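Interim report, section 4.2 (structural modelling).
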Amino acid sequence: MASLIRITDDWDLAEDCVQDAVERALVRWPGDGTPDNPAAWLTTTAHRRALDVLRRRRTEAGKLAELAERAERTAEPAAELDPYGSAYGDDRLRLLFTCCHPALPLAGRVALTLKTVGGLSVREIARAFLVSEATMGQRLLRARNKIAHARIRLVVPEPDRLADRTAAVLAVVYLIFNSGYGGGPEADRLAEESVRLARLVARLLPELDEAHGLLALLLFQHARRAARTDPAGMLVPMAEQDRNGWDSAMIAEGLASLATARGTGRPAGPYRLQAEIAALHATAPSADATDWAGVVAAYDHLLRLQPSPVIALNRAVALGYRDAPEAGLAALAEVADQLTDYHLVPAVRAGLLRLAGRDDEALAAYHQAIEAAGSPAERRLLQRRIDELTG
Amino acid sequence: MHSMKYMMFVATDPEPGDGKDAIDIEDWISEVCGPKRLTGDRLRPVSDATTIRVRSGEVLVTDGPFTESKEWILGFDILDCDDLDEAIEIASKHPVAHAGRIELRPFWSDEED
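Predicted structure of the assembly:
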């Protein structure tokens, strides 16, 4: 798909031709047998179809000449395109940079990345973001129109812009993950897709440490997916999760990615630091046995790079475990006035008060937290805490 | 592939930057743009603007800009670029980008097909 867009410079045509090739395959493969290299067969068929269509568009004689010239310039015969080889990889990279171009609206970047790089259907994307298929179709169309009208080209950015633009790609991948975090099956699909995208970016831009840092972070978080809810669908806080339910293969992959990020020798960026924190959780035998000093140190480092009251809130929790709940409460008091609208503040305060054994104050804070809770699942968990304290 | 024309609106910003890294406008025109800039100019302030409408055959002339806004257009340039990234690169070096803001709009007539 990516190589076809590059050669035809026409997103709709490329998509139609790929669709057409897939339909032909469905008709022919059962009878003729599946070709040795199905991906190459599809690519060649789609390319031939694109040539046919362009040839029929007589008025676009110039475009045909350009296509022929470009096909020649790309030098590799379509039949030899290897889906896992560098030629294909470069096309996916160009496509990623284009889909995540900062000149596109953020929601459009997310949708376009899932559609053209991830291969999700419009229906799947629409369901995951709780909008109608028509709305999502419009969103995709507007993004594609802007690419065509403002001429955003399918290229890897110049070296002096690469770091900025890679940060934009990583932000979209992270946003896709967070859109899927802790939701239902549709949302799970997003989380899985974002892990796949992060793997792709890390493979295609191996020298960029933050790509490996983001991949490690997503792997550690996604490794906990099964333990995050109990069989009744109730949220389980990390401290109480069954760590045998964590995906150990995914944690191992995360540790390897984190080692690769460290191995670049660059100063740690925000994704790597968050991955360092997630790694300390992922490798700890229990909440109590976690290296909380290491967690607090990583949050301190992160705060120096990215001053944010939400990060300070997380640091307050870690401090509560490292020293004593009272120390966490003191740190929380320092940031609370910057977080008046953040719904998790009363819940965090309630948790620290509970750990400190200040049950009456904890109970009051849990009631406050229920008022502010962001989701029914959070509310149920908070209600259980109230029941525990009053029961 | 033929080039694409972009209108570059040079405007003020309600949250202005300090402009300390801004280069001289003459350097921007000669060294950054070269042949990529077809034309451009500064515009007199909105107090010198005149707005015209024709309704029911009557020409309505009013003093001031077409929109009441805290921001206003200081000037314009027309760029002829290979793609949006090149136009962004050129726009990002305009001195007003460091203090105000710049809007790039592709020309309608340059659309392919």
